[in-house]
Design goal:
single chain; alpha+beta; three-stranded antiparallel beta sheet; two-stranded antiparallel ribbon; about 25% helix; about 30% strand; globular; NUDIX_hydrolase_dom; NUDIX_hydrolase_CS
């Protein structure tokens, strides 16, 4: 989990590594890049946990999120962490539930619970053209 400042409220919140696509980048490439930029870890993707739409009630913004399951491979020595990330944490399910009022959105816990329920789709669900 990453701990970051919510730019709208100024509060510190917890989230899975997240981000956006760069021009010409595949979704898979973006996952690897964003995870490295936000955590300093290289990963091996295992599957897709799900797709989510989340509308921020106080701002009206809607976010489309693709959540992946991955194994942490190794921490990259000297990796530069995105300045918006305050800290990187390894948390248990119980610890994450205890922080439920500090999660970026309800989707953070929902996708963890989907995975705990056995939900995971193969990576070939995503097609690049």
């Amino acid at each position: 989990m990453v701990e970051e400042r919510d730019k709208a409220t100024g509060e510190m919140v917890f989230n899975q590594p997240a981000g956006h696509l760069e021009d010409g980048e595949s979704l898979i490439e973006a996952v690897h890049r964003e995870t490295l930029e936000e955590t300093g870890w290289r990963i091996q993707l295992r599957g897709v946990i799900g797709l989510s739409l989340y509308r921020v009630p106080t701002r009206g913004n809607t976010y489309f999120r693709t959540t992946f399951l991955a194994d942490a491979l190794d921490r990259v020595t000297g990796a530069t962490i995105d300045p918006d990330i305050h800290a990187v944490h390894w948390l248990s399910y119980e610890e994450i539930r205890n922080y439920s009022d500090k999660l970026r959105s309800p989707v953070v816990l929902e996708v963890i619970e989907r995975h705990r329920g056995g939900l995971c789709y193969p990576l070939d669900l995503i097609q690049n053209r």
